[in-house]
Amino acid sequence: MRRVVVTILLALSFTGLSQTNHTKNLTILANPLSDYLRVSGPEAIDGLNYVIYDGKGKTLLSGVYTDGKINIYTLPKGVYTIELYKQYECYSKSDFIKI
């Protein structure tokens, strides 16, 4: 009897966002961070939605990026990922360190 092993690879999105990449050279300013996360890019960023999650994929903060910053004061020290998105399509995804 011959045994066949089938490997199935699944792409998971912790946030449920489309993983279409529309990265626009966005930069997190002053990484590592302590109180506020600021993003810089060639286009206007205000009005984009964001999700911040930990290494296990747990959503910790979410909202709309306004006033040029996101308050991350309540996050404990660690490494996090931020996704900026518009209409359920990932616009940019980046890691940052909270100190």
Summarize the structure in words.
It is a single chain. With 99 residues, the protein is mainly beta. The protein has a single domain, classed as Immunoglobulin-like, CATH 2.60.40.10. 0% of the residues lie in helices and 40% in strands. It is built from no helices and 7 strands. The chain has strands spanning 27-29, 36-40, 49-53, 59-64, 70-71, 78-86, 89-98. A 4-stranded antiparallel sheet has the order 4-3-6-7, with no helix packed on it. Strand 1 (27-29) and strand 2 (36-40) form a beta hairpin. It starts with 26 loop residues before the first strand and ends with a strand. Mean pLDDT is 76; it is low at 1-22.
Rg from alpha-carbon coordinates: 16 Å
Helix content: under 10%
For the report, how would you describe the main beta sheet? Answer: 4 strands, antiparallel
Secondary-structure-derived class: mainly beta
Determine the strand fraction and express it as a percent band: 35-45%
H/E element sequence: EEEEEEE
- The global form is globular
How are the strands of the biggest sheet laid out side by side? 4-3-6-7
Number of E strands: 7
* Domain module tally: 1
Q: Give the overall pLDDT as a whole number.
A: 76
Low-confidence stretches: 1-22
User: How far apart lie the N and C ends?
Assistant: 58 Å
Query: What is the number of helical segments per DSSP (H or I, 4+ residues)?
Result: 0
Write down the CATH class. Mainly Beta
CATH superfamily: Immunoglobulins
CATH topological fold name: Immunoglobulin-like
